[in-house]
Amino acid sequence: MLLGIIPARYASSRFPGKSLVDINGKSMIQRVYEQAKKSKSLNKVIVATDDERIASHVKYFGGECVMTKSNHQSGTDRCFEALKKMEGSFSYVINIQGDEPFIDPSQIELIADLLIDGKTELATLVIPVDSQDLLFNEGEVKVTLNENKEALYFSRMVIPYIKGIDKKEWHKHFTYHRHVGLYAYRCDILEKITKLKPSALEKAESLEQLRWIENGYKIKVAVTHHDSHCVDTPEDLERILKSMPK
What we know:
globular; 11 strands; nine-stranded mixed β-sheet; 30% helix; Spore Coat Polysaccharide Biosynthesis Protein SpsA, Chain A
């Protein structure tokens, strides 16, 4: 049984209230919810929030919502609290980012395929990097993989360094990937990682998934070619609105 959880909080340093912002007639959280509901792999989809405005809106459009504490440090922690409040038995939780209104259901299917045997501890998605600008954009998290399609490291910097090649050409000589913020957690592992203390690498890069790797957990990776366009700032939203068909 797979549970899809969409963490959504009202507070955001760069874009407060973005979950409720209108995108051509629908709020961002409604668009994420409706896209997630299209997935055939998910047995249930809920929104986990700490804000009554978001909760009321989710109920208004017919969605299911769970109230969580306001002091969670990450979406992972919020997912675990929401899981504990659910009735029924689930084997995995899929954390669906509440600021990706155009997530494709096929991406959820892709990550769900990694969970079939029940052995996968954690999973996520990456997308190939096809330009120098994206590669050297420190807002884009890059991921290096091993031969088993497991994450070796996540960084805002470019890894690996290619010796003897102009940096402008690096993306043509190595298959770089950037992170797509969709996570799957086996439920017993989700409980364990929420009890871990922040790690040195996590603090350095400000990336919680490094805490899991530092503590020996394996993150399986699947490659998607669909860019779901994360909305972090009002400028991101403006760019998306301009690209949408009239």
